[in-house]
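G., the chain you wanted modeled:
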Amino acid sequence: MFFFKKKTQISEQKVRELIQRLEAAYTEKDIEKLKKLFHSDHREISFLNHFTLMMNFQIYNIQSEIMKIEILDLSEDEATLTYTRKHIYTCINKNDENGESPNNITSYYIQVRKEANSIWITKFSKYSELFLDNEGKILPHEKAVVPSSAQFFENMKRFIESFQLDGFKPATYLLYNDSEFIGYYPEIERFSYKTTEKFTIDYFIEMDAASVEEHTEIYIRENSLEYSDVIEIEGNYSIIETKFISNSRLQHELVLSMLAPDGFFLIRYLKNSNSPMDQQLRQRWIDQMAAATSYLNPN
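Predicted structure as C-alpha cells:
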C-alpha cells in the first residue's frame, strides 16, 4: 500500500496561521523564527533589520494584538493580503523610560508564495502607521501619523485648514528623499489598503516642469485617463478633473497643483466607488481647493 503525502496548498486558514506565527515570534523575541517565515531571497527587508530588532528586544516587552486580516487575492500557490496589528511596548528596565511612546498600530501589505512544499512570505511592506500614547490610544489629529523624522509637514499644514475633513482621519504618512505625503481616509477605512475615497497632500521640494501649465499638460498627457478637464489654471496653480479605470473600477479625481515659494504641492481628492462623484460633492471639493490657493505664500 502506497501513502502519498498531501500536497501543501495555500488557504485562508494557513495565511492566518502564518500571521499568527509571525506575531508570536516577534513577541517571543525570536529573530531566527522570524527569518524562517520569509523566503530566503526576501530577508533583506527593513522589518528584519537585526540591529533594530535586537535593540527593541533588549529594551522592551511587547504585547501584540492582530486587529484585522484581509485577503485580497488567493490561489493554491500564492496569496496577497493586508494585516493590521497593535503593539504595546513596556520597558523591561524602568531606567530606560524616556517619556516617549513607541506604541503603534501598523498595517502591512503582504505577498505569500508556496515553494518546495513550504509557504513563505515574499513581500512585507508597511503602508500605514498610527502612533499611540502610553495608554495605547491613537494620538490626536496629525500627531497620529507624522513621524519625528518628517521635515516638510509644516509646509503642508497651512493648506489642511482650508478643507472640511469631516469623517476623514489622518491614516498614513510617507517619507521620500525630496518629498513627503500625508493621506486622510474615511475613519471606518483607516486600516484599509483600498479605500472608497481619500484626501491626500504630496509635497515636493521642486516641480519637475518649467511651469504649472507645463506640469498640468504633462500630467494629463502621461496618465491613462478616460476623461480630463482643466477647471481652473493660473500662473502658479491649476485645478483639474480626471476619470480613469484602475482594477476595473472607475476612479474620479480632483487635483490641485500649486507652486509655492517653499515647494510644489499636489492636493487630491479621489472617489473610488466605481461611479462619478455627485455634483454637490464635486463642487464642494473644487471650492475648497480654490480657497486653498490663498495660502500659497507661507507667510
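The mean pLDDT is 94.

Shout if anything looks off.
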